[in-house]
Amino acid sequence: MIGQDLLGIEDLEREQIELILETAEGMQEIASRDVKKVPTLRGRTVVNLFFEPSTRTQTSFEIAGKRLAADVVNFSASSSSLSKSESLLDTAKTLDAMDPDVVIVRHRVAGVPRKIADVLDAPVINAGDGAHEHPSQALLDMLTVYQQKGRIEGLSVAIVGDIAHSRVARSNIYGFTKLGAEVRVAGPPTLLPPGVDELGVKSYTSLREALDGVDVVMALRIQTERLTGALIPSVREYSATFGLDRAKLRFARPDAIVMHPGPVNRGVELSHELTDDRPSVILDQVRNGVALRMALLYLIAGRSASRGKEQASG
Amino acid sequence: MDSEPSETHSRVVLDDEKIRRALMRIAHEILESTSEVESLYLVAIPNGGVPLGRRLVENIESLSGIRPGMGILDTTLYRDDLTRRGMRPRLRKTEMPSSVDDRLVILVEDVVNTGRTIRAAMDALMDFGRPRTVRVVALVDRGRRELPIKIDYAGKNIPTQSGETVILRIGEEESEVEARDESLEVVVRTQRGAHDADAVKEAQS
After folding, report:
1. Is residue B10 part of a domain?
2. Is residue B7 situated within a structural domain?
3. Is there a domain that residue B34 lies in?
4. Interface test with A, best of B127, B128, B177, B205 (most A CBs within 10 A)
């Protein structure tokens, strides 16, 4: 079993990650059926509580819940009473009084899902908090690599881009190292977090060195509006140095795959052809995202009257 | 999931030879009861149904010259006890290579007891299409039914008591899907302290 909540990959044991991936593989077949729905979570309520806009993750959780026959309610900050200055935790408690079976939380501030989990009876899944963690994205990335390569142990994975501000990078660093892969991070020095080596990864400012012999290249989205001028000189400069195209990909292993959590800035992190064609597996990632989130809902959703939050950490 | 209680008594009630004979007899019975061998579709419920289904496919082919289709259908997501928190069994493989529409589907299960798994299997099957007829093979019928489910082809009736578990053992493993051509046997286990035999069976799967 995995724990009561899923707040970060940092909290998971290797066996728990493997259980989630195995369960997600079992869920994949449902997408190929005529009737893409199983009755497993009939009568359960899944609440998407998104304080930060997200199309992909929110839709993916929504489809996952619906394929398991749960009722899915989307509660987004713009439509909520947050605009009427109700406090975050009051909003969460109000929701909890409506007896959801699982609450999916996204917030721009790191640690908010944990705060909410502390006051809710319902289990909480972190759908991305600040630059902290985005566990479901990392898990679908691990599932994708596992299915493309047949293993994760012993692989080399290079994560390229804005490592310092990326919850995707952080969760993937925890996840891939726990499963026995070697993880490297690469980017301009301004975008590499200090102390990243303590997470068991090696950091590079040369893309060529970082990609040397890797099996997987994961490009991260560059938030051009936020970074330009401050942390990177220009988008063009970034793209020339760290943007991936077929020529730069030659540094990696010949059978290396290319990943991106989306949405891609075409021509910035990835060239057009790498966005659309093999060896990029971006659409496999999206497809796997639904199955992976079905697995999470299956393993986590459900309230228990007798349960106390304090004893449910394991 | 749970560790085994310390005191366990096992006895073999069907050895590999008896299982072979039972599956050959069942293959005859299936062929006797239908004139449309072409529409046969064996759907095995993992894990134990899978090696039994494979043997039935071989038997039916050798008797009729026609190799029936076979699928594997996991019933976990259709169970009626998932509302309990913490009750999250591991998923098993589902592979339904051809359509079930208008087919004569034979569900193949190792041990049928309460009938709840067969109920789940029928619900799952209907999500894949509309079979013309559904029938059930059970290698072992324990007979303590909780739902109105009947077995059409039974290998052996083994009345058991609460506290006893009936297991199809495949080679060294119990109900291992990947194992082929391994010797099979059915064992009855009596466990002291087991309050519900089904709970024990589920805990092992």
Report:
1. no
2. no
3. yes
4. B127
Number of H helices, E strands in chain A: 12, 9
Better pLDDT: A227 or B66: B66
Q: Report if residue B173 sits inside a domain.
A: no
B67-100 pLDDT, tens digit each = 999 999 999 999 988 866 567 899 999 999 999 9
The CATH number assigned to the domain holding B98 equals 3.40.50.2020
Q: Give the 3-state DSSP-derived string for B37-79, with helices as H, strands as E and coil as C.
A: HHHEEEEECCCCHHHHHHHHHHHHHHHHCCCCEEEECCCHHHC
Q: How far apart are CA A42 and CA B123, in angstroms?
A: 14
Query: A257 to each of A254, A264, A280, how far by Cα in Å?
Result: 9, 16, 6
Q: What is the ipTM of this complex?
A: 0.84
DSSP annotation of A65? H
How many angstroms separate the CA of residue B146 from the nearest CA in chain A? Answer: 21
pTM for this entry? 0.89
User: Is the separation of the CB atoms in A175 and A145 below 8 Å?
Assistant: no
Q: What is the distance between the alpha carbons of residues A19 and A126, in angstroms, rounded to a whole number?
A: 18
For residues B205 and B201, give the distance between their C-alpha atoms in angstroms, rounded to a whole number.
7
SS3 A202: strand
| Burial of residue A305, with CB atoms counted within 10 A of its CB: 0-12 exposed, 13-18 middle, 19 or more buried | exposed
Tell me the pLDDT tens digit for each residue of A292-313. Answer: 999 999 999 876 544 444 444 3
B82 has a chain A CB within 8 A of its CB:
yes
